[in-house]
Amino acid sequence: MTSKIKFVHGNEACVRGALYAGVNFFAGYPITPSTEIAEILSQKLPEQGDKFIQMEDEIASMCAIIGASLTGHKVMTATSGPGFSLKQEALGYACMAEIPCVIVNVQRGGPSTGNPTHVSQGDVNQARWGTHGDHSIIALTASNHQDIFETTVNAFNFAETYRTPVILLFDETICHMREKLIIPRKNDIPIVNRFRTSLKKHVDYHPYLPREDGRLPMSDFGDVHRYNVTGLFHDMWGFPSNNPKIVQELLHHINDKIENSIHEITKYKEHYLENAEYILISYGSSARSAIHMAKNRTQRGEKIGVLELQSLWPFPHALVREKCSKAKAVLVVEMNMGQILNQVKLALGDSKNVFLANRIDGNLITPTNIKALLRVIQGRGV
Amino acid sequence: MSVKDYIRERFFPHIWCPGCGHGIVLNSFLRAVEQLKINKNKIVITSGIGCSARISGYVDFHSLHTIHGRALAFATGLKLSKPKLKIIVPMGDGDALAIGGNHFIHAARRNIDVTAIIMNNRIYGMTGGQYSPLSGLNIKASTAPFLTIENDFNIVELAKAAGASFVARTTTYHVLEAVTLLKKAIKHKGFSVIEILSQCPTYFGRKNKKGDACSMLELYKKNTGKIGSKKLNNNPDLIKRGIFVNNNKPEYCEEYEKIIQKAATAAAIRQI
Ligand SMILES: Cc1ncc(C[n+]2csc(CCOP(=O)(O)OP(=O)(O)O)c2C)c(N)n1
Ligand code: SF4
């Protein structure tokens, strides 16, 4: 098969990535600006003999994909702010019961119904802490369609590798704009498939007993191993337990399996970063403006670079510390009131000048917006 | 096989209070499965949260104990993704019709091949006796110290109106009838609902002075009548037991196969 060049919007790039990764079950509920994902999959999935369902709400969609994941499918749902709020309880269930699934949140302005057709990056912290209780989460993002494609494939791969929900935090601008996408050839991007137990019938299978390497082989519902899955704290059979030792170990397990894998999960890009005096940290569509600005200024001899984050959770504090160690100032470019800024401050402590270059009025932050702030920081006036 | 072969002995004793009706439902359910001789690997039991929902852990099937009210949404994903599975969903009245009411009517509307067993004790047992949408008027509950003023749902009428293709009602007193009806519900292709009136002596019984579990069971004998029986004909106000709906409407997963065929044809035409 040869590479295929497409001209698509970001939502379609996400769908194409999902299909490449092997998605074969989708449940969703329409919401701007994510709806195109459901619309395209309502055609593509039945075409390949797989299932699409429009559920009665986002709660039901989240629950339905968890059910379908347990029968051995690669599952996804897509939504935006209000729907993302509704999914939180079941998302926490998937963390606790360790069920692979992918949740796309194409961010729009919030809180509440907010600004449905305009861009925002206001759900970064909700992605981290939207569901209750101590848990860890993987959230990925991208700033162009090629990266949306690859990030979506990664999301499915991480979901299977770590048996966990993975959140794709895109935004209205990136998902509604169109640009070129080259569909990679088969096997160009590795695919992680369901890791199933090799235990035979009548051998006692422990669904929640991690192997030495921390992984837990699964068994599809309908196959020979019958076990219990619950959102209660549970023992190695999946049976409810409030034994303090079991409770504590399980909580450690669902957090550690992700936090300890931060090196494998962290994805980022450097743009003009070498010797940069001023570093812009950005992600998603904001990063496009940051990169544009840095390119422009670099061409004029200034030393401005961009650290583009493609994984937001677990947050790569050590990476940020390392990359920004020599910077005079760090600007976090995002479209919210400083959600990633707080993490960057945590990473850098008080030792650095860390500033927020943001825009929260529903419009995309522009290179000019960022430049204006940078000039002030540089002491050159507006 | 005997009923014992269908339970996970490792996980007993169960959590239910002495005299709770939910254990009787479990017993009837297992007898029904045993008599139907369904392969255990083909059955998935999925439930929400509540005393009733705990049934799922005790039985030796694939079991998915989920979150409050949402079991039918999980069930929809399970069934649609693997239609050869038999999906059973035991629910409390609050689980099924308060928090889960929306999923209930939509599962019925789709007529997806899932069996919903609603164990109606007219109270929230697990959380300590608050009123439920099935409590009805003038009931004492821990959140209704001055008695309830809310009307209750009629599960049978609701299921019927929403489109369920099999609807039945029985009680924990009528154990053998429950087995027969459960067998029919499980065998039925489409969304089947079976309401089983189940006693909660601990909360509903105590708060409303209904006596012990035995007196509550006696009451089911007295205040219900089988459809077509003389007893019911003479006392039409009794709660009706039996089958209210049993028809062959198109089932969701079977209809979905037609979509797959249409999509394949459309794709083939595009290729030409
Ligand atoms: C989202 C959510 N809200 C509330 C609860 C608390 N809760 C647990 S069970 C239950 C009601 C149980 O009543 P019912 O479904 O009738 O079942 P029963 O215990 O009587 O068998 C409630 C309110 C919960 N677990 N989750
Ligand atoms: S509280 Fe009521 S419903 Fe719950 S186990 Fe006890 S008797 Fe049964």
Q: List the total number of helices of chain B.
A: 11
Q: DSSP strand (E) fraction of chain A?
A: 15-25%
- Mind telling me the CATH class of the largest domain in chain A? Alpha Beta
Oligomer: heterodimer
Bound molecules: thiamine diphosphate, iron/sulfur cluster
Overall geometry of chain A comes to globular
CATH class of chain B: Alpha Beta
**Biggest β-sheet of chain A: count, sense, barrel?**
8 strands, mixed
Q: Which range does the strand content of chain B fall in? A: 15-25%
The neighbouring-strand order within the major sheet of chain B is 2-1-3-4-8-7-10-9
Distance between the termini of chain B: 56 Å
Number of strands of chain A: 16
Question: Looking at this structure, what is the CATH superfamily of chain B?
Answer: Thiamin diphosphate (ThDP)-binding fold, Pyr/PP domains
Helix content of chain A: 25-40%
Query: Overall pLDDT of chain A, averaged?
Result: 96
Q: Report Rg of chain A.
A: 21 Å
Describe, in plain words, how this protein is organized in 3D:
- With 382 residues, chain A is α/β, with parallel strands linked by helices.
- Chain A has 2 domains: 1-265, Rossmann fold, CATH 3.40.50; 269-377, 3-Layer(aba) Sandwich (Rossmann fold), CATH 3.40.50.920.
- Helix content of chain A is 39%, strand content 21%.
- Chain A is built from 13 helices and 16 strands.
- Chain A has helices at 10-21, 35-47, 58-70, 81-97, 124-129, 145-162, 172-176, 244-259, 262-265, 284-299, 317-323, 339-348, 367-377; strands spanning 4-9, 25-28, 51-54, 75-79, 101-109, 115-119, 138-140, 165-171, 178-183, 228-230, 268-271, 278-282, 304-309, 311-313, 329-334, 353-358.
- In chain A, the strands form 3 sheets. In chain A, strands 2, 3, 4, 5, 6, 7, 8 and 14 form an 8-stranded mixed sheet that branches.
- In chain A, helix 1 (10-21) runs parallel beside helix 2, helix 3 runs parallel beside helix 4 and helix 10 (284-299) crosses helix 13.
- The longest helix of chain A has 18 residues, at 145-162.
- Chain B starts with 21 loop residues before the first helix and ends with a helix.
- Chain B has 272 residues and is of the alpha/beta class.
- In chain B, strand 5 and strand 6 (130-131) form a beta hairpin.
- The longest helix of chain B has 20 residues, at 252-271.
- Chain B contains 11 helices and 10 strands.
- Chain B has an 8-stranded mixed sheet with strand order 2-1-3-4-8-7-10-9, with helices on both faces. In chain B, strands 5-6 form a two-stranded antiparallel sheet.
- Chain B has a single domain, classed as Rossmann fold (3-Layer(aba) Sandwich), CATH 3.40.50.
- Chain A binds chain B through residues 25, 27, 43, 46-47, 49, 51, 53, 55-57, 59-61, 63-73, 75, 89-90, 93, 220-224, 226-232, 237, 239-240, and chain B through 8, 10-11, 40-42, 44, 46, 56-57, 60-67, 70, 73-82, 84-85, 102-103, 106, 256, 259-260, 262-264, 266-267.
- Strand 10 (228-230) of chain A pairs parallel with strand 2 of chain B.
- The complex binds thiamine diphosphate (TPP) and iron/sulfur cluster.
- Thiamine diphosphate binds at residues 49-52, 68, 92-95, 119, 121, 123-127, 132, 200 of chain B.
- Thiamine diphosphate is lined by residues 49-52, 68, 92-95, 119, 121, 123-127, 132, 200 of chain B.
